[in-house]
Amino acid sequence: MPGEPRGRGERRALLAGGPRPGRRRAAAGAVLLVQALERAAFFGVAGNLVLYLNGSLRWAGEQASRAALVFLGASYLLAPVGGWLADVYLGRFRAVALSLLLYLAAGGLLAATALPDGRRSFCGEVPQAPVTPACPAPGCPRPAPAPYCAPTLYTCLLLLALAASSVRSNLTSFGADQVLGLGRHASRRFFNWFYWSINVGAVLALLVVAFVQQNMGFLLGYSLPVGCVGLAFFVFLFATPVFVTKPPEGSQVSSMLRLALQHCCPGLWRPPSARDPELRPPQPGASPEQDIANFQGLVRLLPVMVTLVPYWMVYFQMQSTYVLQGLHLHIPNIFPNYPRNSSAALGAPAGGYKIPEAWLLLANVVVLLVLVPVKDRLLDPWLLRRQLLPSALQKMALGMCFSFASVLVAGFLEMKRLEYIHHNQTVSQQIGDSVYYAAPLSVWWQTPQYLLIGVSEMFASIPGLEFAYSEAPRSMQGAVMGIFFSLSGVGSLLGSGLVALLSLPRGWLHCPEDQGNINNCRMDRYFFLLAGVQVAAALLFVWISRRYERAARSPAAQSGPGRDRG
Fold this sequence. Notes:
Elements: H1 8-15, H2 21-46, H3 49-56, H4 61-77, H5 79-90, H6 92-112, H7 116-123, H8 150-178, H9 186-216, H10 218-238, H11 253-264, H12 288-306, H13 309-315, H14 321-327, E1 329-330, H15 362-385, H16 392-422, E2 427-431, E3 434-442, H17 447-471, H18 477-502, H19 523-553, H20 555-559
Parallel strand pairs: 1-3
Antiparallel strand pairs: 2-3
Helix pairs in contact: 2-8, 2-9, 2-10, 3-4, 4-8, 4-18, 5-6, 5-8, 5-18, 6-8, 6-10, 8-18, 9-10, 9-15, 9-17, 11-12, 12-19, 13-18, 13-19, 15-17, 16-17, 16-19, 17-18
């Protein structure tokens, strides 16, 4: 791994007869490059998906938003599928390679729909609008037409989500496999740089791909993610000789489900008979005692991961309500010499380029790109020398504190913004095709909440990856990593559900008279509610994590049948 210090870990790897440390670093570096390119492709597809469906294909805004939510949710919720397939049938190397091939095929199909001829080939001709009777009254509702090319695009997006989720769940643990034997802190440092590479890919997508899509067209804009995946696939195959690969060791997911059913519903459980023709012989190397030990370890592990769901609810506000709040703050002109330029729709008078709205997410990304190397090179070694380096669980609790501070700051900023609105102190600004009535507060006042959520990600998400990988049974590492990513998707969907619930009549976010603005909503109360949920979840997490650590240090855990820990 880049920057890994030489020492006992290297000597241990040489004595064990494994690959030399230099090869392991090269393998880890190749994994980081593949991860950066894959994330650039993913964010390149997701960043302007609503704009593509709404602008190029003329889908209704609600239809485009729903498709984007389905894609993002599926890209997280399908993660356990790829992990399980790798554990049982494919192995992590082949799972990643096949997922990248699926990525290429689905990405090429998406790019083809941006070409008129390709769109007609895969979707048919654009249906003509049916002739309907005239409205009996002005403003009468008309049914929204069926979205053009919906079956092809939904199939394409779900295949992309399956490929992205499989890469996400398998490349993480495959990369950590490359640094085993390089010292006790090698995995921690790998996950620091792994997360850093994710944000390098996000910067590439937001700065380059989103700009091309908005200003040069989606054919070239969606061809760039395909090129990124193709380059990632080439790098992955080129680095095959230096990779440490492991065959599929089988997954004990079925054993875990059998034990769970036997424990929870003993009346429904029928022990298998030796004469049962479908009885499968036990997995080589796995004993019933080890199955029980792995099941007990998984039972202790899952509550820790589940209590991170409220953190993900707060985290995904960065891509939803934080952006909505920013649109209602004053966004200054970057090119004030051009009077037509305003807010995020900045361009030269003669149809020049415009700054993509997706660039608003760069604040969080830049924070991680700066702080992760500082933490890895300066803070962690300084704490390690003084034997003060906190455990992964302690870092996760600290990350929850920062996320609480972020959403609390957002709530206070929203209160201040509403004070200006209620005193009729507003400025109108055009962003894209919409006009927003914003408070005369600069959007830069959002910097603290973006900074805090970025710091929380460094302390909660990165140690969470390390914890899930290191504590999972070896035969279930792919599935457990998939569950970790899937739970983050659950947090996102729960956050969306809470917004939908509060948007009902008499809800804090119900303000239809604003016509897209939020000036008559009480989003400050929504932020404070999330802060309360995060505090309660953090307290529960601290209690569960202490029980987990006590159970791990107990004499029974040390002397009993061991789990096949990774």
